[in-house]
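Hi team, as promised in this morning's meeting, here are the two structures we talked about. I've kept the exact order from the run log so nobody has to guess. The first one is mostly here for context; it's the second one we should focus on when we meet again. Sequence first, then the predicted structure tokens.
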Amino acid sequence: LAGGIILGVALWLRHDSQTTNILYLQLGDKQAPNTFYVGIYILIAVGAVMMFVGFLGCYGAIQESQCLLGTFFTCLVILFACEVAAGIWGFVNKDQIAKDVKQFYDQAFQQALMADSDTKDGKAVVKAFHETLDCCGPDNAIGAIPPLWRDDLCPKDSILKSFLESSNCHKKIDELFSGKLYLIGIAAIVVAVIMIFEMILSMVLCCGIRNSSVY
């Protein structure tokens, strides 16, 4: 069940409309940075393997098989190590992910402001960011400049918001990825706690079977 829940959360994050709309964008030959998906794929793999390993543990407990329970314990240790490694990777890269996406947005924004006819990709990318995140402009400094570009690139409701509140896209990108990484962190902690209990209980059961007078 825990594996199924983790798999479901990971698949939801993977197919979330906001992240997919942004991370599938392409600016010329350059693809939007999709480092964020590395953590998602690890969660998907952990969830799927946990479902299989959980079945193995249940079957081993029903059959009272030390071999299956030992295999179950070994698989849990490996999964736990992978999850700790993924958690460390996510903590180290949490700021870099948003930074890379903001740099990609800034490049597209600079292209969109150019008067050349070859900047359609830049305008399309910027519009996708603005519509998906309901934001307008890269930062407050540029947002304070007379909005000659806003009618062309920004949704009308976000133009008003940009004057009334801080709705620049840099802030929205930070909020988007910090929120998603927060969910990934919670899922990882829950799985880690469950795994620790599973390892303890499987060893207790394995030792109980070994010391049982029946065997």
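And here is the second protein, the one for discussion:
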Amino acid sequence: KLFFTDYGNAAKVERCDMDGMNRTWIVDSKIEQPTALALDLINKYVYWLDIYLESVEVVDYQGRRRQTITKGRQIRHLCGLAVFENYLYTVNSDNLSILRINRYNGTDVQALARLDNAKEIRVYQKRTQAAGRSHACEQDPYGMPGGCSHICLLSSSYKARTCRCRTGFILGSDGRSCK
């Protein structure tokens, strides 16, 4: 799945399949300006910052079990969001510090370091990666991902895929080759 925020005419947190199909709103009320999003892949939670409502909140992948992690004026200066173990990590754009926030109760906020001009944060650690398994976009014997000549996107499950073409090409009638 692909998760994303939108704060256009109607602010929301959404999800869809990797090929853009099955678009679903998972948060569409009491939300104004969601600017950063992070996933807990193991427990299947979506965290987001709302800088207008000055809050950090969480829901499960279906948009249920919504909770506010923390609220307050300090939120309007946050950008970027990452989850690792018991904490959320974010960047305070006001003083360029990296903050660590306890994701279960919003307390234990600590400034960890200062950076010059940081706007985003990511945690790279083996435990944050889902276990690999075979999927529909693996290379075929000819080296083509999922048998697609250009781009392979996972669809509704890891066993289904959609082929797409690079700009300037159109998908052939076989649904796999680009012309």
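Starting points for discussion:
The first strand starts at residue 2 and ends at 6.
The domain at 135-178 is CATH 2.10.25.10 (Laminin).
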